[in-house]
């Protein structure tokens, strides 16, 4: 992502600011999600966190496509990830289910600290010779996936609105488990280096369109299924990583 430093010797094309503007928009989405969570509009809050995930996936790719990456943009992106995937989901879950449970706030703190530790480890390893972004696996659950999984009890509650809300103790333990998975050394699949033959590209595009349609029409059911599939993929990633060593 581009660096808007004022002491630059050359004028910067305005279009190079687009990746950073996407990151700032993601920050605004995360902050607004916290506001809606505080006001009790939890479905809107979750949707805004999901929007932040989409923007997080776009800003870095846009910067690489435009060849305007910079240390400034990388740091901005990391701070946005902490807010959107560490702070916002934890607070939304707290407002949703944990306010009246004494250990609930401790779970939020634990999850948030695990997220910032995960991001710090990723930033360090991504700059080393053995960067995890160059491998087929991450170490631990990435922070966007952690946020997606952390809100799984909410998806299920929205999907089955007639069911009683999950017990606060369950949400507390579940949130701590997700936090631990982020800082663990458990291998998880990295799809950054996945390639597909031209003959299968059309099927990949069709699958993406179907997934997007499902998210638009059956949001909570699709998110629930995606979360379950991702959890199942952790076992497959562990077995695959062991065989490759």
How would you portray this structure in words?
It is a single chain. The chain is mainly α and 245 residues long. The chain has one domain: CDP-alcohol phosphotransferase transmembrane (TM) domain (Four Helix Bundle (Hemerythrin (Met), subunit A)), CATH 1.20.120. The protein contains nine helices and two strands, in the order H-H-H-H-E-H-H-H-E-H-H. It has a two-stranded antiparallel sheet with strand order 1-2. Helix 8 packs across helix 9. The longest helix is centred in the middle third of the chain and has 28 residues. It starts with 17 loop residues before the first helix and ends with a helix. About 2% of the residues have low confidence.
């Amino acid at each position: 992502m581009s660096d808007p430093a004022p002491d630059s010797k050359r004028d910067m094309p305005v279009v190079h600011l687009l990746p950073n503007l996407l990151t700032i928009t993601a920050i605004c989405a995360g902050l607004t999600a916290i506001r809606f969570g505080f006001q009790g509009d939890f479905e809107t809050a979750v949707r805004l966190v999901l929007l932040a995930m989409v923007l997080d996936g776009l800003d870095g790719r846009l910067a690489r496509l435009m060849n305007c990456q910079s240390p400034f943009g990388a740091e901005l992106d990391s701070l946005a990830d902490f807010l959107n995937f560490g702070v916002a989901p934890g607070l939304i879950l707290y407002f949703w289910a944990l306010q009246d449970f004494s250990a609930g706030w401790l779970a939020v703190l634990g999850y948030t600290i695990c997220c910032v530790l995960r991001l710090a480890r990723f930033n360090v390893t991504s700059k080393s010779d053995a960067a995890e972004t160059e491998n087929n696996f991450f170490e631990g659950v990435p922070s966007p996936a952690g946020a997606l999984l952390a809100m799984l009890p909410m998806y299920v509650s929205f999907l089955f609105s007639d069911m009683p809300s999950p017990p606060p103790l369950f949400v507390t333990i579940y949130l701590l488990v997700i936090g631990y998975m982020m800082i663990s050394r458990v291998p998880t699949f990295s799809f950054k280096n996945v390639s597909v033959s031209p003959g299968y590209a059309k099927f990949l595009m069709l699958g993406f369109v179907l997934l997007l349609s499902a998210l638009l029409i059956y949001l909570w059911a699709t998110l629930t299924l995606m979360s379950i599939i991702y959890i199942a993929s952790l076992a497959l990633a562990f077995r695959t990583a062991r065989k490759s060593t």
